[in-house]
């Protein structure tokens, strides 16, 4: 029995893994193991012999079982140690560098002005960038012979021979959205229409595609006074300067009567533009009372309703607010420019949290 004990205890001590240990268990204390065989021999013994051998065999079985359990636990600990060693991770290492995109100034400024006009009850309306010449010109009281039509440097869509659809243009301004929205919603109305527009023109302050925002308010008793209040309210909020002054200069647009070009107060100090101070003026938009023919084209009765409209360049006010000198760079997709002038993607502009940080 001592031999058996020595043999199995040393095998257990040498076992390298759990399956070797299981083989030893079967050979030693399994149903057909050596200890079981010895137990079977008890029957052939005399009662005296059995009294000594029985408990001794049980003790041997217990001893082997507990040696197996101890070894099994030790092997488990070693395996865990090994796993912890091999799967070790240095969580203090710097993360891999990930480039983050930024919000383009045009998108940022569109969000900003949308937030400001929303506060004054204007909702956003949109229209197609490819539109008929009727929406882009005629409905806005710009007939075929009108000089404004020639001055717009319009891109016309190519037409196949025999194509008798109405001529289509890349819209030269956002004003056609006025007509589409009047048709769709009727009066009263309070909308802004931001979006891309196209003209064949290219220099430091002109690109063939740029952005405008149109404003339109129709009601029973709106006047130029309401227009002026809305615009001054807008510019103060947009440039984050209280009480910006505007100057209305008589002008002419086919779609408004009377018409005015609007300047905001500014000054030049050491070649730097300062908005909202001094005695200089900077032209920022065109506006006026909506022409009766335009209301009619939109299906609204000019004897019952009247309103004001304005149109302003989004890229241009972005350049003014954020000190961006060249318009062409807006559309070059140069990553260095985008990183420099772009905005953090999670900063949603709103009037209470600040328009831009
Ligand atoms: N559509 C004009 C342009 O592109 C801008 C404009 C002027 C829009 C006066 C208006 C307005 O609504 O009333 O130059």
From TrEMBL:
Residues noted as binding Mg(2+) in the record, renumbered to the chain: 257
Cofactor note: Binds 2 magnesium ions per tetramer.
Compartments (UniProt record): Cytoplasm
BP GO terms, sorted: phenylalanyl-tRNA aminoacylation
Main location: cytoplasm
GO MF annotation terms: ATP binding; magnesium ion binding; phenylalanine-tRNA ligase activity; tRNA binding
InterPro entries given in the database record: aa-tRNA-synth_II (IPR006195), aa-tRNA-synth_II/BPL/LPL (IPR045864), Phe-tRNA-synth_IIc_asu (IPR004529), Phe-tRNA_ligase_II_N (IPR004188), Phe_tRNA_ligase_alpha1_bac (IPR022911), Phenylalanyl-tRNA_Synthase (IPR002319), tRNA-bd_arm (IPR010978)
GO cellular component: cytoplasm
Protein name listed in UniProt: Phenylalanine--tRNA ligase alpha subunit
Lineage, highest ranks first: Bacteria, Pseudomonadati, Pseudomonadota, Alphaproteobacteria, Rhodobacterales
Gene name, Swiss-Prot/TrEMBL: pheS
């Amino acid at each position: 029995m001592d031999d058996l004990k020595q043999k199995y205890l040393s095998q257990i001590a040498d076992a390298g893994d759990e399956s070797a240990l299981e083989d030893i268990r079967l050979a030693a204390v399994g149903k057909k193991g050596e200890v079981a065989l010895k137990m079977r021999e008890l029957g052939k013994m005399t009662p005296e012999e059995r009294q000594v051998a029985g408990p001794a065999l049980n003790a041997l079985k217990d001893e082997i079982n507990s040696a197996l359990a101890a070894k099994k636990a030790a092997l488990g600990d070693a395996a865990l140690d090994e796993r912890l060693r091999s799967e070790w991770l240095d969580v203090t290492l710097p993360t891999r560098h990930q480039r983050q995109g930024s919000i383009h100034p045009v998108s940022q400024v569109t969000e900003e002005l949308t937030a400001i006009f929303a506060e004054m009850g204007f909702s956003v309306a949109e229209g197609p960038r490819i539109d008929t010449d009727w929406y882009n010109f005629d409905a806005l009281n710009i007939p075929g012979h009108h000089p404004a039509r020639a001055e717009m440097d319009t891109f016309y869509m190519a037409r196949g021979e025999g194509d008798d659809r109405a001529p289509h243009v890349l819209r030269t301004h956002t004003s056609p959205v006025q007509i589409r929205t009047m048709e769709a919603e009727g009066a009263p109305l309070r909308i802004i229409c931001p979006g891309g527009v196209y003209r064949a023109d290219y220099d430091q302050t002109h690109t063939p595609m740029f952005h405008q925002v149109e404003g339109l308010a129709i009601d029973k008793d709106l006047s130029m006074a309401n227009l002026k209040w809305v615009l001054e309210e807008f510019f103060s909020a947009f440039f984050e300067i209280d009480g910006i002054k505007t100057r209305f200069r008589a002008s002419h647009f086919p779609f408004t009567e009377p018409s005015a070009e609007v300047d905001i107060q500014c000054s030049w100090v050491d070649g730097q533009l300062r908005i909202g101070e001094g005695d200089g003026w900077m032209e920022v938009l065109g506006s006026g009372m909506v022409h009766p023919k335009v209301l009619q084209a939109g299906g609204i009765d000019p004897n019952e309703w009247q309103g004001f409209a304005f149109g302003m360049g989004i890229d241009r006010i972005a350049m003014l607010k954020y000190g961006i000198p060249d318009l062409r760079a807006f559309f070059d997709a140069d990553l260095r420019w985008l990183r420099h002038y772009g905005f953090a993607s999670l900063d949603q502009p709103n009037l209470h949290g600040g328009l831009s940080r």
